[in-house]
Amino acid sequence: MANEVKFTLEQIEEAMESDVGFCIACGTPRECCEPDAQNYPCEECGLYRVYGAQELLLMGLVEDNDG
Questions:
Q1: What is the pTM of this model?
Q2: Would you give per-residue pLDDT tens digits along the chain (67 residues)?
Q3: Which residues contact 48 (CB under 8 A, 6 or more apart)?
């Protein structure tokens, strides 16, 4: 599997407040995404790799804000 994009804790906190998810293939945000969303389609790259903010936490794809 290709490398997965990692996100900062700040990005995830903001995403949780506004129901945004992220594509783990290209990093593009997607609005109207439930916190537990899995495998939603990405409008940018077309892959089904969009996950909700809380799901990204569970997947270990979140780094603290210092990197």
A1: 0.90
A2: 458 899 999 999 999 999 999 999 999 999 999 999 999 999 999 999 999 999 999 999 999 766 5
A3: 39, 40, 41, 42
